[in-house]
Specification:
The protein contains two helices and 23 strands. The protein is mainly beta.
Length: about 260
């Protein structure tokens, strides 16, 4: 399959980030001070969790989560399939989680900490959605199959699909922000590859709809979803799943970036 490569000179990227001096439109695309692409999103305390949701976190099958799970304002009864230890204190544990599980009805200061984390998650989503002057708009009409994408701000007024493969090529400090107005759909066995030293912690997928990761897919980056993040059987992510509704897992491997 032919691979399409998006090439971007650093001078052009700087011009996009800074905007035209003749433009009267408000600009909100600060440049990355440490590398190429836009300035990274600030996750705040939401970055303390590999999975953070508001209404529920569920799993079926043998899931393996490396990192902490947080749920608020829903209670721990909406964390299902993990066989949580009891009695809980400020947190609880699970054999499927290398980390801790926190819920809004646990002992103080957990409720306040989770409220702050959810607010930080929502602020990061708003920041991502509000960035202007993207370097690329409507790339591939939403189908980015086989492309190699350099650091930058990308915007779609549609959904985005990755049927089987996409590559993000850049350095360790470079940043990608993807603004997706509808759903993000990752195909079965699809792979998001990072090359050139690119790091999952610097890749942000802002999804206004639902994010669905297909069976045995391998995904990279931080998903900030307005609604549901759904992992189909055997899907894996190196990154974070931060959902303003629920996260569903099915024999999923989740590793913090």
């Amino acid at each position: 399959m032919k691979r399409f490569t998006i090439l971007l000179a650093s001078v052009a990227l700087l011009g996009t980030a800074c905007g035209s001096s003749n433009s009267t439109s408000p600009q909100n695309n600060p440049p990355n001070p440490n590398g190429l692409g836009p300035k990274a999103l600030i996750l705040g305390t939401a970055g303390d969790y590999v999975i953070l949701a508001k209404s529920g976190v569920s799993t079926t099958g043998v899931t393996a989560v490396v990192g902490d799970i947080g749920l608020s304002p829903a209670a721990a009864s909406f964390v299902t399939g993990f066989a949580l230890s009891s009695p809980p204190t400020t947190f609880t544990t699970s054999a499927q989680v290398t980390g801790k599980v926190w819920a809004a009805n646990y002992a103080v200061p957990t409720p306040a900490n989770l409220t702050a984390a959810v607010l930080d998650m929502q602020a990061a989503y708003t920041d991502a959605a509000g960035r202007t002057s993207p370097g690329y708009t409507e790339l591939g009409a939403g189908n980015i199959q086989g492309m190699t994408l350099v650091p930058g701000l990308y915007k779609w007024g549609t959904g985005v699909s990755i049927p089987s493969a996409v590559t993000l090529s850049g350095g360790a400090n470079d940043v990608w922000i993807f603004q997706i107005a509808q759903n993000l759909t990752v195909g079965n066995a699809a792979i998001v590859t990072l090359s050139g030293g690119a790091q999952a912690k610097n890749v942000f997928w802002q999804v206004a709809g639902q994010a669905t990761l297909g069976t045995t897919s391998e995904f990279k980056g931080v998903i900030l979803s307005k609604t549901l993040i759904a992992f189909n059987t055997g899907a894996a992510i190196t990154g974070r799943a931060l959902a303003q509704t629920a996260v569903t897992l099915n024999a999923t491997a989740v590793n913090q970036p």
